[in-house]
Write a sequence for this structure.
């Protein structure tokens, strides 16, 4: 008994103090990673360019709680609590645009690092601690609920490892608990959320369903994206159930009931980890100098259930006759080899980012109406 108490106290003392604002990547009312430049070059089908500025809401009515993906370049199996440029950049790349509608909270957490992931993919066995990552996010969530929420609606947003951690959090701390009343939605992107085959509820969440209407609140948005002409190969770790009788949930933010043109905000150059020179987005137009680019009508998305996989199929509506690009970057590559089993994991959120942002506002209105 004494030993168990001592171990519990030691674990508690090791948990970051989220009253210390240095342990947050993003918080409202300050200049941080979520206050980065989000200006976007919009390139129309005729090649005409215009710059779309970004304006955050001055009095947002709801909150967004974001947990970032595997991104840390720390050399240890789990990261430290000092965010590097990569954590700063991924917040700009994935979640900062949600400030159009909500207050942003993003805790720093001791995630399993990209270094460790690469080691595992190479056959290594680094001493990763997934419980530490979850424990940090739970502590941050508890702090947020105790000090900041004050009865407001909240959208949970995660990608990849961040989604896995939030899936645990929703299952343990929200589904069937008092906090479920505050849930506007949970956007669990880039990791598989298992549901019984052909069903919208069950699997990991007994009472929280997949979102099937833009005016539905208290539900789950989830998908993993692949090019429509390069579906998940049999070896893919994504977009499939984790046991017999279940499948990966898929909800298309551009049209929860079908296929639609997506509102993408793509990084103009590089990816969510590194900046690079802008891509050739137009054959004869000037180079893009903003951090983001949007190409209306170029991308369509739909959920496809095929060969045991349930995934978001991304179609590039290429037109060789117009001046715009006929393809988009986003594959994970090792040298010249594309890792097709990863699909478009790097841009899971960006191919439908405008849709996700707009969806959060509609879901909040549905939540507020019910309240």
């Amino acid at each position: 008994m004494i030993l168990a108490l001592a171990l519990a106290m030691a674990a508690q003392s090791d948990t970051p103090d989220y009253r210390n604002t240095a342990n947050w990547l993003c918080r409202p009312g300050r200049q941080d990673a979520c206050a980065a430049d989000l200006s976007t070059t919009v390139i129309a089908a005729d090649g005409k360019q215009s710059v779309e500025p970004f304006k955050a809401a001055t009095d947002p009515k709801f909150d967004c709680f974001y947990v970032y993906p595997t991104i840390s370049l720390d050399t240890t199996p789990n990261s430290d609590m000092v965010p590097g440029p990569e954590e700063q950049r991924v917040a700009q790349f994935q979640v900062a645009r949600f400030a159009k509608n909500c207050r942003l909270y993003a805790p720093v957490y001791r995630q399993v690092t990209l270094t460790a992931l690469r080691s595992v993919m190479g056959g290594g066995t680094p001493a990763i601690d997934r419980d530490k990552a979850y424990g940090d996010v739970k502590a941050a969530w508890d702090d947020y609920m105790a000090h900041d929420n004050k009865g407001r609606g909240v959208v949970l947003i995660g990608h990849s490892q961040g989604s896995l951690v939030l899936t645990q959090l929703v299952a343990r701390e929200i589904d069937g608990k008092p906090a479920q009343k505050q849930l506007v939605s949970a956007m669990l992107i880039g990791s598989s959320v298992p549901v019984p085959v052909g069903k919208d509820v069950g699997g990991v969440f007994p009472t929280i369903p997949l979102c099937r209407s833009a005016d539905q609140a208290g539900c789950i948005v989830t998908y993993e994206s692949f090019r429509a002409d390069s579906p998940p190969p049999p070896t893919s770790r994504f977009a499939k159930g984790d046991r017999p009788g279940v499948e990966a949930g898929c909800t298309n933010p551009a049209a929860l009931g079908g296929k639609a043109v997506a509102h993408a905000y793509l990084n103009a150059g590089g990816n969510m980890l590194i900046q690079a020179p802008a891509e050739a987005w137009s054959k004869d137009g000037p180079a893009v100098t903003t951090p983001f680019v949007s190409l209306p009508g170029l991308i369509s998305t739909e959920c496809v259930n095929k060969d045991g996989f349930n995934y978001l199929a991304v179609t590039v509506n290429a037109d060789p006759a117009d001046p715009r690009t006929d393809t988009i970057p986003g594959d994970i590559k090792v040298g010249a080899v594309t890792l097709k089993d990863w699909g478009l994991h790097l841009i899971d959120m960006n191919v439908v980012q405008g849709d996700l942002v707009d969806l959060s506002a509609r879901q909040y209105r549905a939540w507020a109406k019910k309240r």
Residues 3-12 have pLDDT under 50 and may be disordered. Residues 130-149 form the longest helix (20 residues). The chain is about 20% helix and 20% strand.
